[in-house]
Amino acid sequence: MEKKVSGRNRPEVKAKVWTLPLGYLKTNCYIIAPEGFRDAAVIDPGDECEKIVAVLKENGLFVRLILLTHGHWDHIGAVADLFDYALAETERGAGNKGRLHSLGGGTVPAILLHESDEGLLEEGSPRPITPAGFLEHGDQLRIGP
């Protein structure tokens, strides 16, 4: 996964998207994965981590990015549990040795949001979470190929 990736000279890869309305407010959480690959991004894991994990397991996917559109509680409620799940899968190897990556070159899933929401993430998350980086308008992210 890289930030600000140019689309030149890259083959087009179609992505599969799952929409999960979660929690009391039925806030949409999205799982995005390029077809034919096991890397996935989860956007706004607001609640009910077990439902997110069920989709990941059912489709053989591994979380590489957790993206937060903003830091309100209904968009970040399951972020700590999802991170723990993704980290445990990464540490187990999950058949992906040699392919693990995240922003900064580490092997843990990256959590990204806009810098102005960092305080909300700290206040609203059930457990403290430190983002791997911050997103700005116009940033492009890549997952998979």
Question: How would you describe what is shown here?
Answer:
By secondary structure, this protein is α/β, with parallel strands linked by helices. The protein contains 4 helices and 6 strands, in the order E-E-E-H-E-H-H-E-H-E. The chain has helices spanning 49-58, 73-76, 79-92, 118-124; strands spanning 15-22, 27-34, 39-43, 62-67, 110-114, 133-135. It has a 6-stranded mixed β-sheet. The longest helix is centred in the middle third of the chain and has 14 residues, at 79-92. Residues 1-6 and 96-106 have low confidence and may be disordered.
Outline the fold blueprint.
Blueprint: E1 15-22, E2 27-34, E3 39-43, H1 49-58, E4 62-67, H2 73-76, H3 79-92, E5 110-114, H4 118-124, E6 133-135
Parallel strand pairs: 3-4, 4-5, 5-6
Antiparallel strand pairs: 1-2, 2-3
Q: Can you count the beta strands?
A: 6
Q: What's the total helix number?
A: 4
Task: Strand order, main sheet: write it out.
Answer: 1-2-3-4-5-6
| Quaternary status | single chain
Give the overall average pLDDT: 80
Class inferred from helices and paired strands: alpha/beta
N- and C-termini, Cα separation: 9 Å
Largest sheet: 6 strands, mixed
Global geometry: globular
Strand content: 15-25%
Low-confidence stretches: 1-6, 96-106
Order of helices and strands: EEEHEHHEHE
Radius of gyration, Cα only, in angstroms?
Answer: 14 Å
User: How much helix, percentage-wise, in residues?
Assistant: 10-25%
